[in-house]
């Protein structure tokens, strides 16, 4: 239902080119240019003599936007042809008796007649299905890993409700066996988020689902950061009543919203200070840069459009308020996560171009989830809004295909005509758009990353398993080959090491 | 046409809602029935239900007068499924909402706590669960104060007033890491307390005799049922060494035990089979979530069933109790036979929780918990077309379907009833 490139091309009439706050964003292009140079401190000419003759300038200071760069490299892959499969392209298309050729980590060709090049490994796929890899926009693997012991509880920086300065990647433990289980479930990319205790929980990180010795080895190259925010009762519960924070705030929904707004206002002031520094330096003045504030660094990056807001929000009324906060401060919410009541405002979500990342049927475990219905995903889809199936769970992430299947069946029972090919968008291209990686992955298109899954059969069946999971054309998981079933460090030498999982 | 279907549905619902709660005579014809869990396949079955009970399941059987005929051609028919060890009816939400009646943090005694004291058959979880084909459940506390989980019971999810099927069916005990933390701070400390309780109630030692004039010990009273085999002990254990302790308990005291959780039970599958100790497990548990569960694997259920252990399934949690068939389907995907997986949500829990004399199969005289499915009941895209509990047709309605119907078309103020 969504036009191709929907998330990217969406017009944000209020966000750009207006007077007032947006003036501070006009330097975005220049800043991005600096980002691409990748330097923490740029030595500028000591004196821009033309502007302020006689005044000696200090060094120009700019902020390194990528201090923890990805060291990801694809695993070794082979020239591989998979043939005779039922292929879902992740954009709504389905091809019977299809073949797909992967070369140098990319999708080289696919369709009805793709000949096997010399030296290609040919995988016979008769009776099997091939899809784009599943992308989970909501995971806590690594930050709430297995074992879930006190020592590994690294997902919520509880203490104060505004912590956009913390970055999930600094908590990710790459030895969480949950990553390998997710490979067996066909997950090729995932966003690791901080928890929802705080109004601003911190930065997320997008990973390719491959083993690594460090989180940087897994970081999806070029993927934008996300900012986790949380609506409603979680921040209230954690702080209300004076727990964890002597200021007792927030303890109400209105306290939550006041907290977001003040933080955004602070971020605007911070951005203005940096803009002024920029202007003054360029005018040749000898000026000191503003004092760096790691919280404001993240929030200002959201206001510039560099970081995507991923917002935990259950209730329809709360989401409606957040859409106004978004407009007030000229930023974008990429997706509401959980969005158990998205079906009540699916029209507004479509109009505002915000995705909803949902469970098929989880409900009731808290008051905000009490109005969950099984048709939520299908109704959001029906409204023409962007629907995503997410997990938020180390078990759910292993069978997101089944979650899509349930949502599809529920939609059909409610009279909606949804195809399997359409439903796969909930698992691939829609989440890719929400994360800003849709140019690289999320669908089967020539030139895209070869992130694909070969299923033992129809992936909308409970009995179907991922036979092989490919990331960038390399096998990360093979159900029939123990040498391609990664074992986490933690599992070594333990009961069950290397067992079927 | 769609609105006509909805209207017809609403009329049917209205009829069912206003009709007196009486069991009628139903004849379900033309479907494929499974009479004993996943076994006893009968094609073109005529399933006769009368007075709340199964009358017969016969291929191409005749429909006697006075039976309402339900066409089930192309459909699958099974017994209503049974989910194990939930907290259904003991709370709507729990977190920051209503009281959670499954908890025991502030209890004086824990061992004998009775979930019937908190059970609410009007909980919205019950219609939500039963319209998905799950019609029976065992219910126990989740504890909190120490390792004891009170006395478990079995309920049916019907609309009658007799929803408690078997009261005080079992005593729950959590000897996992979790129980040890709350019940003494370590396993040795917890076991010292556990043995003291059992020894005090053991009629063979004579220590259970109450002194004249002394107050009855509530815990001893509750434990007595174990020694008289009126109740059994459900023990939450995941680590192999803990599961061996459960076997030793059975040997020492002679009462009936079942293992719940059982993440590493596959490692002692033959011993469990020999000792006739059933295992109630979550087939999706395949992660080392704690140091008790390092050997967790999705193949657990398959391995236990093949070794001859009687297996039943836990749902992921109480609100998701309705996802039981999906869990069973995943057990099949991990190597369990389909018939064994269906057994694990029907005849097996009926036997394990002691209600097999009236529930669990579609044999003559059994309670008519019957579900008509639009396909393989373990498949994720399958759902029930009709559900009967104790012979009563269940309205296929819940708070969730009401919300669905209200928001199917978005209007400014959906709170007003739409006039057709």
Describe the structure.
With 501 residues, chain A is α/β, with parallel strands linked by helices. Chain A has a single domain, classed as TIM Barrel. Chain A has 12 helices and 16 strands. In chain A, helix 3 links the parallel strand 6 and strand 7. Chain B has 420 residues and is α/β, with parallel strands linked by helices. Chain B folds into 2 domains: 2-78 and 384-407, Urease, subunit C, domain 1 (Roll); 81-357, Alpha-Beta Barrel (TIM Barrel). Chain B is built from 12 helices and 16 strands. Chain B has helices at 2-18, 125-130, 177-182, 187-201, 218-227, 240-253, 269-274, 300-307, 324-333, 338-343, 347-352, 399-407, and strands at 26-36, 39-50, 53-59, 68-71, 76-79, 81-86, 134-139, 148-156, 164-174, 232-237, 257-261, 279-281, 311-313, 370-373, 384-389, 392-393. In chain B, the strands form 2 sheets. In chain B, strands 1, 2, 3, 4, 5, 14, 15 and 16 form an 8-stranded mixed beta sheet that branches. Chain B has an 8-stranded mixed beta sheet with strand order 6-7-8-9-10-11-12-13. Chain B is globular, with a radius of gyration of 23 Å. Mean pLDDT of chain B is 93; it is low at 1-21. At the A-B interface, helix 3 and helix 10 of A face helix 9 and helix 12 of B.
């Amino acid at each position: 239902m969504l036009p191709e490139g929907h998330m990217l091309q969406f017009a944000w009439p209020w966000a750009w080119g207006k007077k007032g706050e947006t003036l501070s964003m006009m330097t975005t292009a220049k800043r991005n240019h600096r980002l691409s140079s990748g330097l923490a401190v740029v030595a500028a000419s000591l004196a821009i003599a033309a502007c302020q003759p006689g005044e000696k300038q200090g060094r120009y200071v700019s902020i390194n936007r990528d201090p923890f760069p990805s060291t990801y490299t694809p695993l070794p892959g082979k020239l591989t042809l998979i043939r005779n499969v039922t292929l879902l392209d992740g954009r709504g298309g389905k091809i019977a008796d299809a073949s797909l050729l992967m070369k140098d980590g990319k999708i080289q060709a696919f369709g009805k007649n793709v000949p096997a090049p010399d030296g290609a490994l040919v995988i016979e796929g008769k009776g099997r299905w091939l899809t784009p890899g599943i992308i989970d926009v909501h995971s806590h693997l690594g930050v709430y890993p297995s074992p879930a012991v006190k020592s590994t509880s690294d997902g919520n920086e509880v203490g104060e409700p505004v912590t956009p300065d913390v970055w999930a990647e600094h908590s990710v433990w790459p030895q969480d066996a949950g990553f390998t289980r997710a490979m067996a479930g066909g997950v090729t990319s995932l966003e690791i988020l901080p928890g929802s205790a705080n109004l601003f929980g911190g930065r997320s990180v997008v990973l390719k689902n491959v083993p690594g010795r460090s989180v940087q080895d897994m970081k999806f190259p070029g993927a934008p950061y996300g900012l986790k925010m949380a609506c409603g009762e979680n921040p209230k519960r954690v702080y209300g009543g004076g727990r964890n924070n002597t200021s007792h705030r927030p303890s109400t929904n209105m306290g939550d919203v006041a907290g977001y707004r003040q933080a955004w206002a602070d971020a605007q002031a911070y951005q203005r200070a940096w803009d002024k520094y920029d202007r003054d330096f360029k005018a040749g003045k000898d000026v000191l840069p503003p004092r760096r504030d790691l919280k404001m660094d993240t929030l200002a990056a959201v206001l510039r459009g560099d970081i995507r807001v991923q917002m935990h929000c259950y209730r329809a009324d709360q989401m409606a308020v957040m859409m106004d906060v978004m407009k007030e401060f000229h930023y974008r919410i990429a997706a509401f996560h959980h969005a158990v009541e998205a079906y009540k405002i699916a029209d507004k979500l479509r109009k505002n171009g915000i995705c909803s990342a949902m469970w098929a049927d989880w409900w009731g475990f808290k008051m905000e989830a009490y109005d969950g219905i099984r048709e939520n995903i299908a109704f959001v889809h029906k409204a023409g809004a962007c629907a995503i199936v997410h997990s938020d769970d180390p078990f759910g992430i292993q069978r997101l295909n089944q979650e899509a299947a349930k949502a599809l069946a529920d939609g059909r029972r409610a009279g909606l005509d949804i195809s399997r090919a359409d439903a796969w968008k909930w698992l691939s291209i829609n989440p890719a758009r929400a994360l800003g990686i849709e140019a690289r992955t999320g669908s089967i298109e020539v030139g895209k990353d070869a992130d694909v899954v070969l299923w033992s059969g129809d992936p909308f069946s409970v009995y179907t398993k991922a036979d092989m999971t490919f990331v960038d054309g390399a096998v990360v998981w093979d159900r029939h080959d123990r040498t391609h079933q990664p074992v986490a460090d933690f599992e070594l030498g333990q009961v069950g090491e290397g067992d079927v999982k | 046409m769609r609105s006509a279907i909805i209207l017809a549905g609403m009329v049917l619902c209205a009829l069912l809602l206003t009709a007196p709660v009486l069991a009628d005579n139903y004849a379900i014809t033309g479907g494929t029935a499974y009479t004993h869990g996943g076994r006893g396949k009968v094609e073109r079955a005529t399933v006769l239900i009368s007075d709340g009970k199964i009358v017969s399941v016969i291929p191409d059987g005749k429909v006697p007068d006075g039976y309402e005929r339900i066409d089930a051609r192309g459909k699958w028919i099974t017994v209503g499924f049974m989910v194990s060890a939930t907290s259904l009816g003991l709370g709507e939400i729990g977190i920051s909402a209503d009281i959670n009646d499954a908890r025991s943090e502030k209890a004086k005694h824990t061992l004998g706590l009775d979930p019937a004291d908190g059970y609410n058959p009007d909980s919205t979880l019950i219609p939500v669960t039963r319209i998905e084909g799950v019609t029976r459940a065992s219910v126990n506390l989740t504890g909190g104060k120490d390792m004891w989980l009170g006395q478990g019971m079995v309920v049916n999810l019907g609309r009658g007033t007799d929803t408690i099927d078997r009261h005080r069916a079992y005593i729950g005990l959590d000897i996992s890491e979790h129980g040890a933390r709350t019940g003494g701070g370590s396993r040795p400390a917890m076991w010292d307390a556990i043995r003291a309780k059992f020894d005090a109630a053991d009629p063979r030692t004579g220590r259970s005799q109450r002194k004249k004039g002394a107050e009855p010990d509530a815990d001893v009273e509750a434990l007595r049922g174990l020694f008289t085999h009126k109740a059994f002990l459900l023990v939450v254990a995941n680590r192999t060494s803990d599961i061996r302790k459960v076997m030793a308990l059975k040997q020492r005291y002679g009462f009936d035990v079942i293992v719940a959780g059982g993440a590493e039970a596959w490692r002692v599958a033959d011993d469990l089979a020999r000792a006739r100790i059933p295992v109630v497990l979550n087939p999706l548990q395949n992660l080392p979530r704690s140091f008790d569960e390092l050997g967790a694997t999705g193949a657990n259920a398959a391995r236990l069933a093949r070794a001859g252990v009687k297996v039943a399934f836990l749902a992921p949690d109480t609100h998701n109790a309705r996802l039981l068939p999906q869990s069973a389907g995943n057990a099949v995907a991990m190597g369990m036979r389909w018939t064994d997986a269906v057994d694990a949500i029907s005849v097996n829990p009926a036997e394990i929780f002691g209600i097999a004399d009236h529930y669990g199969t579609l044999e003559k005289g059994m309670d008519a918990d019957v579900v008509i499915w639009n396909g393989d009941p373990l498949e994720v895209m399958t759902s029930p077309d009709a559900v009967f509990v104790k012979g009563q047709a269940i309205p296929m309605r819940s708070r969730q379907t009401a919300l669905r119907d209200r928001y199917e078309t978005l209007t400014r103020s959906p709170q007003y009833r739409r006039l057709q």
